[in-house]
Amino acid sequence: MKKFINSVDTMLAESLDGFAAAHADIVLLGPERKFVRRRTPNANKVALISGGGSGHEPLHAGFVGIGMLDAACPGQIFTSPTPDQVVEAAAAVGGKAGVLFIVKNYAGDRMNFEMAAEIFDGPAATVMTNDDVAVEKSTYSSGRRGVAGTLVVEKIVGAAAEQGMDLNACTALGAEVNEKTRSLGVALTSCTVPAAGTPTFTLGADEMEMGVGIHGEPGRERVSLVSADAVAEQMVNAIVTDFDHHASGNVLLFVNGFGGTPAIELYLMYNAARRLLEKRSFAVARSLVGSYVTSLEMAGCSISVTQLDAKLTALWDDHVHTAALRW
Amino acid sequence: MKKFINSVDTMLAESLDGFAAAHADIVLLGPERKFVRRRTPNANKVALISGGGSGHEPLHAGFVGIGMLDAACPGQIFTSPTPDQVVEAAAAVGGKAGVLFIVKNYAGDRMNFEMAAEIFDGPAATVMTNDDVAVEKSTYSSGRRGVAGTLVVEKIVGAAAEQGMDLNACTALGAEVNEKTRSLGVALTSCTVPAAGTPTFTLGADEMEMGVGIHGEPGRERVSLVSADAVAEQMVNAIVTDFDHHASGNVLLFVNGFGGTPAIELYLMYNAARRLLEKRSFAVARSLVGSYVTSLEMAGCSISVTQLDAKLTALWDDHVHTAALRW
Question: Residue B236 phi/psi, 5° resolution?
């Protein structure tokens, strides 16, 4: 295991300390590092809280700030945050307008956020993300997994909450964005969870895992590594097939790196995916390319497509000021 | 070689097409992809042009936009751009205020930018960056190499040029920022240049290359992989030793990923480096953490430190709107 690390036990704490210090203008670390919150809270709006296992950085702490999340609860690497983390985050940032939890569909996250919602003394609702079209059941989840599309839900609902949208409407909007979003990932290498010390899975020199999960869960099939265009075609096909077959119109195309794939390859994949979408009567109206929802140092990427209308486009474009997304 | 690629010959072109399409609101690709330029030129200011071998993305094309570069010339991977690329970029974005070339100190880049400056029919000057304290002579360079500190030069001089600073003053400012900046890199793995197809160098499972260059050039020594704190200490020591030994005061701390190292490790290294600098009477007044000056998919990072005064801090903070840096 070749990593910049002092010890498995302190890795997350040290990284969070670094994150909070580097972005002290935007965020504050809560007591015992249970959550990352906005430095300047706004008690009059719906508070958006997300979280999940660490190892996916910048998701979620990198999306805390104006126009996106109010707080994020980092669990240990690939491990759910505990209910008390979520309850304390909600108490710290929630006001009369209530709290909306944005939760990726994994059994542990669901359970712990549900427990937190029961304990939390205030109005609360939940949006569950499940944008991964790869498989219907996976190692840590029943139903589809929540993956990179979660960023899109957090950005768009974050803008709406900032504009004063109420809790019910934010919840419905989150469900709508999730429903309009599809993702698929592919891995060229495994990642190594520090506590395990060895790669989560192994791939041959000419193999890739099509439909991989963001914790290295198995995908649809292990197949031969092919050209970037052929990889993109498999991915775009899977996504487009999953939309209603009359789907067309404006989309957001988000090519996400898993941590070990450099920008030169991500832009090449974006180029391939964009052309494939445009051949199928989609218009790429908005774009995001970068490593935003990672799996430690896994080499690979995911493609996410969100169907946009004028309302969602305006919310996507709206001001955001976080460590990882800013415009 | 596990990469998202169609062919070695088209990789750069496809990636540039993707970059230009994803960021069409900010940049335009010049004829024959010879350069990337701002979509909205400003002929009244000094035009900043950089470039170099590709494989270091987002450097330099990702820094084209308001408050930073006017154009960037991408060579093939780890290969200088040709003089005609630079001349055509200068002709496209240069006005009466002249053109400033920002060039990393490598023999090929120096030669080709010098030839371009001779051919270009207009006022031109050059800032050479050589912030890497690792070695005084390297595979592709005499004198110190220009590495991640180049970003800092481009950002600060970019802000000054945007404010109307003239060519002589911009040139002096670039030299000043370079002089106040020191960097050192470390590699945990090699990268693989697509045209070569095999790793540039090999490291044992418990080895790292301390002082590595951004093309995988040898550093100071190949040593055992130690704890992150110990790695950071070696790096910060080398940087601080190279400054005047009375150096103190405000600095920018920039922890840069080489492409294969995820954010969780970069923030951990930032945390370690920050504490070490603060023990030595530096105050970390500004921070940047992320993979901005990469070496394809190399795992590793560099630490850069820039001494800041009020003037440089204000220029660093000034508005920037590029694909990779935006505030």
Answer: -65, -40
